[in-house]
Amino acid sequence: MPHAIRFHQTGKPEVLQWESFDPVAPAAGEARVRHYAVGLNYIDTYHRSGLYPVPLPSGIGLEGAGVVEALGDGVDGLKVGDRVAYAGGPLGAYAEVRNIPAHRLVALPESISFEQGAAMMLQGLTAEYLLRRTYRVQPGDTILIHAAAGGVGLMVCQWAKALGATVIGTVGSDEKAEIARAHGCDHPIVYTRERFAEQVRSITGGRGVPVVYDSIGADTFMDSLACLRPMGMMVLFGAASGPVPPFDCGLLAKMGSLFLTRPTLFTYTAERDDLVAMAADLFDVVSAGKLKIEINQRYPLSEAARAHTELEARLTTGSSILLP
């Protein structure tokens, strides 16, 4: 009998339970996927903790890669045995097998392994919409990315560098600074001992940057705004340190007619055509060697609680996966 991680109440990592279940046949429009690898992402901790409320009890996880085992009625473009990957859709990726709406699946090229597929989809598609859709980075731009040594951060550093940008990134230690630098970050800033807003102004000759990509939230928000040049864009795409408290929108005017957006991957990939186009863009840069998918942590799926503990303690770098 297959197993999955579920939680019946929100809280710390120990609420995650390893439970057996009896899989049901895929409903109309669904496919059953046997996972070979599952992605670990910071948003998973938001669901578990209750920061992003979900109906309970619940599965968890938004990303995986594997093989199609069965199809429900009305599914076109897929067949049993196809290699697939996905990011988004209903929670439940932390499972040995699962049913998922077939329209969320994309074909995984043979050149990309299941482990890479599970590690790259959510973070890679996030990097795609940040760099190519929310603010379209151009050659010569200087950008700021927080958590530059994290999964999304390392992808943004590599991809932005390939686009011809200068990359400034914040990190928590000298070790992480070296990791970020090795992946295209021109100016890593150790935020634990340097005031990053002052450093960004110094690096840019006082001008500021056209865009800040901020997944930290409360701890960095105001200083991130201070890094922007007039009419710059603040892209708040996460809240690792907690949600940003309410603030006076008039500050955006006073600080230079700034733009603020709070995008999500789910909005950008809501339409099937957009999802397929974004995945193709991602697969292209990976296949071309411009974006290397480095998996620095592997955990047994049954030890998801330990994985969450280490992720929240910022003990991880790059991408992490769970192995069924």
TrEMBL record:
Keywords: NADP, Oxidoreductase
Record protein name field: Quinone oxidoreductase
Pfam families: ADH_N, ADH_zinc_N
Membrane listed as a keyword: no
Gene3D superfamilies in alphabetical order: Medium-chain alcohol dehydrogenases, catalytic domain (3.90.180.10), NAD(P)-binding Rossmann-like Domain (3.40.50.720)
Cellular component GO terms, alphabetical: cytosol
Xref: InterPro entries: ADH-like_C, ADH-like_N, ER, GroES-like_sf, NAD(P)-bd_dom_sf, QOR-like, Quin_OxRdtase/zeta-crystal_CS
Database matches in NCBIfam families: PRK10754.1
Residues of the Enoyl reductase (ER) domain: 11-322
CDD domains: QOR2
One function term, GO molecular function aspect: NADPH binding
Organism expressing this protein natively: Parazoarcus communis
Domain of life according to the entry: Bacteria
